[in-house]
Structures are given as C-alpha cells and as structure tokens.
Amino acid sequence: MSWKIEHRKNRNNGRKAPGQQAHDEAACGRRCGVFRLYRHYVSILLRSAMQYKASFLLGAAGQFLVSFNGLLGLLFIFARFSSVKGYTCEEALLCYGVMLLGFSVAQCIARGLESFPFLIKSGEFDRILVRPRSVLLQVLGSRFETNRLFRILLACGMLCYSLRHCLVVWTLQKAAVLILMLFGIIALFVGLFLLGAAISFFTIEDGGFLNVLIYGGSEHGKYPVDIYGKQMLKFCTYVIPYALVQYYPLQYLLGRTARWEYALYPLGAAVFLLACYGAWRFGMRHYQSAGS
C-alpha cells in the first residue's frame, strides 16, 4: 500500500501546477493560432486569385519575364567578357539566384506592408486596431503576391544550375551558410518593407524613397556589391546592410577569404529587422486615428 502512495506522489510531483499548465497551453494555442490565422489569410487570397486564372497567369508571366530579362542581361555581359572583376558567370548566377529568391519570398510575405499607406488613408487601419488579433499579422495577411511564384521558380532554377556548375567544394557548413544567406536576404527586405510602413504613420505616404533602396537593391544585387566600388560597399555594409547578406558570405562560399566570421554576417539582418520592428512599434504608439 505504501509503495502505491509513493508512486502516486512521484507521479504528481512530475506534473505542473494547474495554473502553470493552463498558461503554457494558452501560450502554445496563441502561437499555433498565429500561424493558423496567417495560413488562413494566405489560403483566402490564393482562392481569390484563382477565381481569375487568366489574370493570375498573365501577371505571373509578366513577373517571370521581368526577372528573365535581368537574367538575359547578365548572360549577355558574360558572353562578351569571361569574368567581371574576377567573378565568373556561374558565380554571378549564384549571387543573382539567391538574391532573387530571397527578395521574391520577402515580397510574397510582406506585400501587405507595401500597401499599408492605403490602409491608413482609407481608415481601414482603425478597423484592424479593434480586432482581437495581432495588428502586424493582419497587415501582413491583407495581401499575398501570388504572381511572384513564377519568379521563385526561376530563382530556384538559377540556383540549381549555379550550384551544379560553380567551382565550389560544397560541404554541410557551406550549405548552412547558403541557407543563412537566403534567410538573411528575406529578413533584410521584410525589414525594409516594415520600415516603409513605419514611416507611413508620420507621412501618410509610402516613403517612396525607400523604393530606391528596396527595388534598386534587389536589381543591383544580381552582382556582388564590390563591383560597384568601395564607397558603395561601405554604404551597403554600414547603412543598408545588403553586403552582410550578399557580398561577405559569398566571399566565404567562393573560397575568396579564410575569415570564417564572414559566414555569420547574415545574422546582422536579424538585428536590422528588429530595429525596423522597433520603428514600427514607435509609429504604432504615436498613431492618431484617421477620424471620420
């Protein structure tokens, strides 16, 4: 009898207190609810886009051709020159492919932030504020760029070709650096979209000058940053950290440097994203209703 009592005590000691258990379950439910809600937003937008299949296919084809035109420009240059500042065509394709893939994914995720000024001017943002869900999640879920999917396929094709033909000795460590580079690019551009939305709290406009940094950066990102000169490299390192997610890890992947810390530079994009999120929170605190 005593061993049964002791066994019951040990089993109860392994349990959490009812309040703590309920708190953990609620926190887990909130986290799952966030992803479930965002997935629901995306599914609605995808179904909506599929109602007009011809429009979807034409828009996707247009985006594909824009990116394919950039690819042709790169190939024409390397058809005339065997290398550009020491970079071969395959190395440039690796750079362009990972940049295009990261930027396209960021556009799919953060397209709602780009159209955020319209939410403020139309008063729709006030309706979002009174809903019992994350404001940022609702803004992100307001739009999803389905026609960027063909650009993602093109970027994946470019990456597959460059990974096969680029003279890089691939190891698990270098594969991890490439993945970190990709996530760094996504974080960088999502941060820029978030910064543009934060500026809209004060200007009621989209901060159009950021389009130069966003779309100009993605366009110039098809080549390693150092081909544009040392001053541009400094700007892209200390102001808008394109070089942290593109140039420095690329040097490590291509074996142009033995500095292993270059492989960790894409983590700087996470710091940049947090700073942009801080700007968003600052704008939220100072937001005044659009009124009637």
Q: Would you kindly provide a brief summary of this structure?
A:
The chain is an all-alpha fold and 292 residues long. The chain has 14 helices and no strands.
Can you walk me through this structure?
It is a single chain. This protein has 292 residues and is mainly alpha-helical. The protein has 14 helices and no strands. The radius of gyration is 23 Å and the shape is globular. Helices cover 74% and strands 0% of the residues.
Class per helix and strand makeup: mainly alpha
Helix share bin = over 70%
Shape: globular
Distance between the termini: 73 Å
- Overall pLDDT score: 81
Tally of extended strands? 0
Low-confidence runs (pLDDT<50, min 5 residues)?
1-32
Q: What Rg, in angstroms, do the CA atoms define? A: 23 Å
The description of the largest β-sheet is:
none
User: How large a portion of the residues is in β-strands, by DSSP E?
Assistant: under 5%
In DSSP terms, counting alpha (H) and pi (I) runs of 4 or more, how many helices? 14
How do the helices and strands follow one another from N- to C-terminus? HHHHHHHHHHHHHH
